[in-house]
Design goal:
The protein has 149 residues and is of the alpha+beta class. The chain has one domain. 32% of the residues lie in helices and 21% in strands. It contains four helices and seven strands. It has a three-stranded antiparallel β-sheet with strand order 3-6-7. Strands 1-2 form a two-stranded antiparallel ribbon. Strand 4 and strand 5 form a beta hairpin. The chain is globular, with a radius of gyration of 18 Å.
Length: 149
């Protein structure tokens, strides 16, 4: 159940703060995954094998009245975290995409396996979420396509 729903005209923003997030190196992270729509009828969507994750630049602590303003602990946005002097976005060396505050999705998947998470189930859940999201967009995409043609 979302903890916050914001309605502006016909657009909605739904979000929920996860109280006990999965942490890697004691840091919160997000995933950036990419979907490619190649056809609307039949609806054909591909999930890219690779993606990226962005990490906070401060170690996570559960939100409290003492730390809720420490955005680099709670938000993964690059535009915010790049201001932190401790930020590590490494671009050289063979391990450049598996360390620092930007890492590959492959790194995340390997980390899950190494730490005994059911990576196959998590990937199935991710695919299911992607399917649900794309199904919700399908009528809009069809409408947009018909408006252009």
């Amino acid at each position: 159940m979302p903890t916050k729903i914001i309605k502006k005209s016909d657009e909605y923003l739904v979000q929920q703060y996860i109280i006990r997030p999965l942490l890697i190196d004691r840091l919160k992270f997000d995933l950036r995954l990419y979907l490619l729509v190649t056809n609307l009828q039949p609806y054909t969507v591909f999930l890219a094998d690779e993606g990226m994750s962005r990490f906070c630049t401060k170690e996570y602590q559960p939100p409290s009245k003492y730390n809720y303003e420490k955005i680099m602990m709670h938000l993964t946005n690059y535009s915010l975290n790049k201001r932190n002097e401790d930020v590590k976005f490494e671009f050289n060396g063979e391990d450049c995409l598996n360390t620092g505050h930007k890492r590959t999705f492959t790194f995340i998947r390997n980390w899950l396996k190494e730490h005994n998470y059911n990576e196959k189930k998590i990937m199935k859940d991710i695919r299911d979420i992607c399917i649900m999201i794309m199904l919700s967009f399908h009528p809009f995409l069809l409408f947009q396509q018909n408006c252009i043609l």
